[in-house]
Amino acid sequence: MKAIGILPGDSRLGGNALTSLELERPVPKPRDILVQVEAVSVNPLDIRMRNAPLEAGFQPRVLGWDCAGIVLDCGSEVRLFKPGDHVFYAGSITRTGTNAELHLVDERIVGAMPVSLDFAHAAALPLASLAAWEALFDRLCISDAGENSGKTLLVIGGSGGVGSVAIQLAKVLARLQVVATASRSTSQAWCRQLGADIVIDHRADLRTQLIDYGLSTVDYILCLADTDYYFSTMASLIKPHGHICALVESANPLPMNQLRSKSASFSWEGMFTRTLYSTPDMIEQHRILTRIATLVDEGRMGSIATKIIHGMTEVNLRQAHAFLEAGGIAGKIVISMQPPL
Question: Can you give the residue ranges of the Enoyl reductase (ER) domain (predicted)?
Fold first, then answer.
């Protein structure tokens, strides 16, 4: 099968290392489904994994985690899907990525695709939706039934993929007051379109801007940007007994004592934890994606695809990586396997 990835020992830098590959057709394990890839989206993880050294002697590295496609074949123990089903998922960092014609994935982390979306718009959702859902409802312990209605959530980095889903879930299910940060006028407008009640600029002082809106503290903080940089600010903004969740790993030990007097909690969210450690509750990601698909089909939330590139080629994948690295794009960049109409 055709794929795009990185060859062991390739010394080319950045997106130039992405090259066409010819790999063997994957064979499903008992819980696997074999998917014909129809669309993928790119994530910051793609950039980090692309830039990680790959020494000679290793297998080629195929990137890509978000995917929407069609089930072609099923392993002997698969019960959730059958050939012909349309699915979407975020895959696992322990396995070959989705930048390929065909892809293997464990059925327990896969959802049936929203029937109201095409493949390209569905492919933008899985990774961001899983990370946002787990961060809000598992790590921050917010009720997905609206039992914390009226409380305030600050989303630092609201216009990216995870932030774009988190804003929608926080409004539609949790019924929170959502404050999102974004630095450009276009990304600020995007956050408002998604439902944010207040949008402030993370390049300026957050406390001063919140006070201007009558807020001195918030109940919950979801940090999707530089955790080291924002930690002390978050510690000052969180309410006593409040909760903070971050996705971006810190470069240095965090000053956790700043949270002690408030009895505030801090959690990490790692969307790949379940697959990385094969936790007994892996099927929760199937259930989350099922809920997301229902919300989309009910018209209660939408896709976050804002740029679609047609055709999985070296040139197009390099271009998608370049767009992502340059910043300035709200939502998600998607590559559709189909040529433009």
Answer: 11-335
